[in-house]
Amino acid sequence: MAMPALCQTAFTVLRQIEPILVLEQLGSTFFDTALQMVVRDRSVNATYPDAHLSREDSQQKAMTNFFMTYNLIIGLTPILPAMLLARLGDRGWRRAPIVVPLSGYLLSRLALLLVVIFRLPLEVMFGAASLFGLSGGFCAYWPGVMTLASLGSTATDRSKVMMRVEVLYGAAGLVGSLVSGHLFLLYSSSLGHGTILLSVSTLLHLLCLMHSIFLLQVKEVSDPEPEDNCHLLPHAPSEVPVQAPAGRNMVNVALLFLAAMLYVSAVGGAMEILGVFVLKEPLNWSATQVGYGNAAGCMIFLTSFLGVMVFRRCVGDMSLILIGMLSFASGIYFMSFVTSTYMFYLARSLNLFALIPMPTIRSLLSQQVPASSCGTTLTSLQLALKFASLAYIPAFTKIYQRTLDWFPGFVFTLSSIITVLAMIPIGIIGCRSPQRRQYERILGDRTDIS
Questions:
Q1: Quick check: 104 and 132 in contact, CB under 8 A?
Q2: Taking burial as the number of CB atoms within 10 A of a residue's CB, which of 46, 214, 234, 265 is the most buried?
Q3: DSSP single-letter state for residue 187
Q4: pLDDT tens across 263-278, in order?
Q5: Domain containing 400: what range?
Q6: CB within 8 Å of 26: residues ≥ 6 apart
Q7: Among residues 215, 187, 298, which one has the least CA distance to residue 18?
Q8: Is residue 196 assigned to a domain?
Q9: pLDDT tens across 147-169, in order?
Q10: Has residue 34 got a pLDDT over 70?
Q11: What gap in Å lies between CA 295 and CA 179, rounded to an integer?
């Protein structure tokens, strides 16, 4: 009797979203490491005669130019497809925001594998990035995953389910990153480095796609008491519970938008350069070290999650955001002066809570508008962040190229400064909130008296 019950439990687990999440993240971490190393190898002989650059600086410029174009394509092309897929999902096609992006994931991974095997030009990946974006990309895939996870749980268990999904995502990224560098170095005598790693990545994404088509179950659990608000995070015990307001607090909304755009610009710009920075002297990382470095980034995902769990017991949302921003600002400033691998990990250790601010900002933003406008407001924020990438990706890339010969870490110092500027709007909101609560309390007292 125990064996059939165990098989039934295993089959039930297989029909949930979590296996897809783990397999996809493993495959993506393999792909990220492979892409980073393939671009470095293909940029070795890059030359810019008019710029009078050294061989290493020419390689760095070629790599940053590639990633600038690649990331701009990936960031901008999914906007409209993601919105259309979200609309399909809301109309009952719940698998569409998962199946379609996974097909794009598979095609882009296959494209890089073909680039390595057949020695195709690296520019082929721009076409692969376009296909990936037109399939919805991560912009459609991640909301689809979170939607299925939330629909399959009750309102009481929803926060736990969301946390479980995020922890699995971070843990899979950590494991995949640690393994990816070793797999890249496995050598095929006829095809060279990276083919085994990319073959495994492609296979994992193929399994994800097949799973989402044939096994994934869309299960909706009805709530006896539907939630009236769209708060994303629980409130700290010290704070007064905030209900969704009847109108919009436009000042706070504008300040939160400004803080989010500044912080995402700082983080996105720095991460745009960090992957290239570690491949030059004095670090000059191998594929294994690149995998370990990516694992450190995934570890920040887990430590930020734990930080939210711990800090929310004693501080409010504003303090949480400031802690996360301060964590990133200090770590990325230290990164400006990194000259060895151990210093890199020391700098990353200061970034332990760097992923706290954005989910908390979204939670605060949802509290400033009526529940009926929550989705529109959060979508507007996401679009604003996408368009901000049009500015910060080229800006950080060009600044890095101009400062290669005298201070390569200047972009990290700049990122730290922008992060400090992002803390100012949050501080203003923190100063406004007590005054607003006091004003509302006075109005309430007057109403009671009358």
A1: yes
A2: 265
A3: E
A4: 999 999 999 999 999 9
A5: 232-445
A6: 172, 175, 176, 204
A7: 215
A8: yes
A9: 888 787 776 677 678 778 888 99
A10: yes
A11: 9
* 278 and 212 in a common domain: no
Whether 439 shows a pLDDT value over 50: the answer reads no
Q: CA-to-CA distance for 81 and 100, rounded, in angstroms?
A: 10
Residue 412 · residue 253 · CB < 8 Å: no
Instruction: For tokens 């060279």, name the residue.
Output: 192
Q: How far apart are CA 255 and CA 252, in angstroms?
A: 5
Q: How many domains does the chain have?
A: 2
Tell me: do 305 and 401 sit in the same domain: yes
Distance CA 47, CA 56 (A): 10
Q: How much is the pLDDT for 244?
A: 47
CA distances from 415 to 60, 108, 251, 279, 303 (A): 19, 30, 25, 20, 21
| 7 pLDDT higher than 60 | yes
Q: How many residues does the chain have?
A: 450
| CA of residue 267 relative to chain centroid, distance | 10
327-356 pLDDT per residue, tens: 999 999 999 999 999 999 999 999 999 999
Same domain, 207 and 238: no
Contacts of 14 (CB under 8 A, 6+ apart): 211, 215
- Cα(301)–Cα(177) distance, rounded to whole angstroms? 13
pLDDT in tens, 174-225: 999 999 999 998 876 567 789 999 999 999 999 999 999 999 988 766 655 4
Last residue of one domain, picked from the residues 156, 182, 217: 217
From the CB of residue 163, how many other CB atoms can be counted at a distance below 10 Å? Answer: 13
Helix, coil or strand: residue 212: helix
Distance, in Å, from the CA atom of 284 to the CA atom of 287, rounded to the nearest integer, reads 10
pLDDT of residue 232: 38
Of 105-119, 357-371, 405-419, 434-448, minimum mean pLDDT range: 434-448
Residue 364 Cα distances to 158, 253, 311, angstroms: 19, 9, 16
pLDDT tier at 299 (50, 70, 90 boundaries)? very high
